[in-house]
């Protein structure tokens, strides 16, 4: 069994001990097997792999020919959101959308909390991460996001507390607030161009709704040219669908340790695919370039920029500055 960190450079064995309370690999292996049998009534072998991300962990296991994934969190402040995300994902799965739906426990729960741990079990989807060099896959990813948005708009939130999915501030206010925070990477020219675009931005956007929250290559699986799995709904939130569409277009190629921008043609293919399923309003289309510029600028890192976010942001800036 391998134990590794998803993002951070911390020592995984140390994190396993100090954050999750497991003395060693044998201890986490025994816990995973006993937990799945106790709550789901399924016997599995020792985990093939355990991956840690912040206060969350994932373990890949086998039950006969079936590959399963146990995901758990030890962050109590996220338990309510995780439970909502699991119910929502199960609901989307029932609508035959390509999501990794959770498997119900013996008591019918899709997310269970026990001994200070919130956990869910799902089947592993066979597929490769979205390839942004494949135009058909990119258009398919756009179309899939539109179908998800159409479904998510109808999801009932009557039993959810507003604190779990708070209503965001008005979009223009969010961007103006970011500019006013004086990011170290924001050049004067970029600030001025973004300011001019905001002055002309319409205010009649469609209402906010639930959005997936982290739609990019790391969470999109494809097989034979089609999207077969959208993963990780733990970042669901309320937002305008055009905001998620633009943010996803800018971040579409990002993987776990490879965060780089995509070409303008990829963003356009993604937008085109989305509109084959759901046509954007004139207001949304006017917000599209503003949001693409904002997210491009916001992703420029201070200091070293090995993957070229700064160059990509300058290209977007010059495109809009020339208008």
- CATH superfamily descriptor of the largest domain: Aminoglycoside phosphotransferase (APH), C-terminal lobe
**CATH classification, class level of the largest domain:** Alpha Beta
Q: Please count the helical segments.
A: 10
| Radius of gyration, in angstroms, nearest whole number | 21 Å
How much of the sequence lies in strands comes to 15-25%
Distance between termini? 55 Å
**Count of individual beta strands:** 11
Plain-language structure description:
With 323 residues, this protein is of the alpha+beta class. It has two domains: 2-124, Phosphorylase Kinase, domain 1; 129-321, Aminoglycoside 3'-phosphotransferase, Chain: A, domain 2 (Alpha-Beta Complex), CATH 3.90.1200. Helices cover 42% and strands 16% of the residues. It has helices spanning 12-20, 25-40, 79-94, 135-152, 171-180, 188-199, 241-251, 264-277, 282-298, 309-321; strands at residues 2-5, 49-53, 56-63, 66-73, 112-114, 117-123, 128-129, 209-211, 220-223, 226-230, 237-239. Strand 2 and strand 3 form a beta hairpin. The longest helix has 18 residues, at 135-152. The relative contact order is 0.11.
Structural features:
Phosphorylase Kinase, domain 1; 6-stranded mixed β-sheet; 10 helices; 323 residues; Aminoglycoside 3'-phosphotransferase, Chain: A, domain 2
What would you say about this model in short?
The N and C termini lie far apart (55 Å).
């Amino acid at each position: 069994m391998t134990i590794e960190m998803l993002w951070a450079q911390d020592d995984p064995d140390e994190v396993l001990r100090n954050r999750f309370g497991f003395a060693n690999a044998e201890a986490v292996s025994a816990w995973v097997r006993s937990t799945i049998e106790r709550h789901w009534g399924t016997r599995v072998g020792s985990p093939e792999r355990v991956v840690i991300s912040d206060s969350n962990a994932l373990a890949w296991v086998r039950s006969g020919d079936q590959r399963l994934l146990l995901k758990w969190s030890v962050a109590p402040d996220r338990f309510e959101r995780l439970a909502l995300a699991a119910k929502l994902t199960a609901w989307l799965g029932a609508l035959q959308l390509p999501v990794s739906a959770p498997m119900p426990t013996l008591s019918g729960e899709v997310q269970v909390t026990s001994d200070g741990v919130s956990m869910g079990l799902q089947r592993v989807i066979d597929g490769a991460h979205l390839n942004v060099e494949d135009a058909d896959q990119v258009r398919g990813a756009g179309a899939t996001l539109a179908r998800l948005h159409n479904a998510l708009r109808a999801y009932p939130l009557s039993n959810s507390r507003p604190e779990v999915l708070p209503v965001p501030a008005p979009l223009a206010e969010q961007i103006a607030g970011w500019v006013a925070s004086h990011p170290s990477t924001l050049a004067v020219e970029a600030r001025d161009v973004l300011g001019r675009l905001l002055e002309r931005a319409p205010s009649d956007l469609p209402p906010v709704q639930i959005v997936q929250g982290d739609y990019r290559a790391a969470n999109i699986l494809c097989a034979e040219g089609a999207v077969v799995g959208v993963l990780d709904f733990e970042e669901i939130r309320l937002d305008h669908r055009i905001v998620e569409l633009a943010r996803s277009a800018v971040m579409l190629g990002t993987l776990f340790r490879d965060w780089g921008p995509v070409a303008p043609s990829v963003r356009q293919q993604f937008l085109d695919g989305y509109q084959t399923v759901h046509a954007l309003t004139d207001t949304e289309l006017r917000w599209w370039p503003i949001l693409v510029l904002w997210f491009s600028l916001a992703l420029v890192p201070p200091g070293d920029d090995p993957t070229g976010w700064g160059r990509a942001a300058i290209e977007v800036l010059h495109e809009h500055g020339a208008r």
